[in-house]
Amino acid sequence: MTSLDPFSLHYMEQQDIRILFLGTAPFAARHLTFLIESGYSVVGVVTTPDRPAGRGHKLQPSPVKVEALRLGLPIWQPERLRDESFLAEMRALRPTLGVVIAFRMLPEELWAMPDLGTVNIHASLLPRWRGAAPINHALMAGDKETGVSLFRLTKGLDEGHILGQRALPIDENTLFGDLYDTLAEEGILLLGEFLQACREDKIPEGVAQPKDTEEPYAHKLTKENTRIDWSRSAREIHNFVRGLSPLPTAWTTLVCPGAGEPLTYKLFVTRVVSEEPLPVGTTPGSVLPSPRRSLHVATGGGILAIEELQAPAKKRLPIADFLNGVQLGEGAFFE
To answer: Does the keyword Transit peptide apply (predicted)?
Structure first.
């Protein structure tokens, strides 16, 4: 098959752009829905194999697979993206464009296959926050602005020419779940603009990303790096909690002297009470005298109020409801 010159296409209708879609998460599934509702031809959907999840460890499909099934689209779930039989089936689809969102690294044999190559929607203003968890890290770092980027796939991770971006401000109390939804909508708008450019033979050349950059990287989140460090400032912990709320969730342990083993708690909502230094000798993590129906905690710089949390095997509760059912006692502290 002869590759098309992306700068010499005639005007195309939506159905003329044969899209190969690759993704896993809800963020990606929303873009898939948009493509179908907008009349674009999605000739194939590639997602991860079903994985065990939940208490029963039953096999669960990815959100993209669930949506593709609802839409009646053909689905592939390869274990290996370099498998020759899988690649042959992808070639047989004759894709015009690849669209990958919230997936994994693709081999060149796959991303270079479509006539117009493959583009990616990434939930950050590249080159800042390349990597697996850009939305979380932008909030955890206290960024004042973020956005979405559409770029052309190359061999590097999130390093291709940027074809478009949409930026938006971040409020100091925005939670990950809310920003996730907002950025998904921004990504849909950005993808729509790019596809319109494809139809009108106006595909942008794009802007090269710097090869050497000191911008931070959005490392994968784990149990180990989502634990709260109470020696950090109240503002830093507040940003940390909201950047992980509701998923994967910041956590800590509560120690109540004389009340048995420490319990692990998930924190969902916090508030900075004060950023003033605390008296010398105040231990970060210690529960402070608090107003009624409130829970104030000392940090390495200021006071933090916990407003929503979840105890083991319990439901998420506002702090007032939590305090109705527990006595913290003197000397209680988080660690």
So the answer is: no
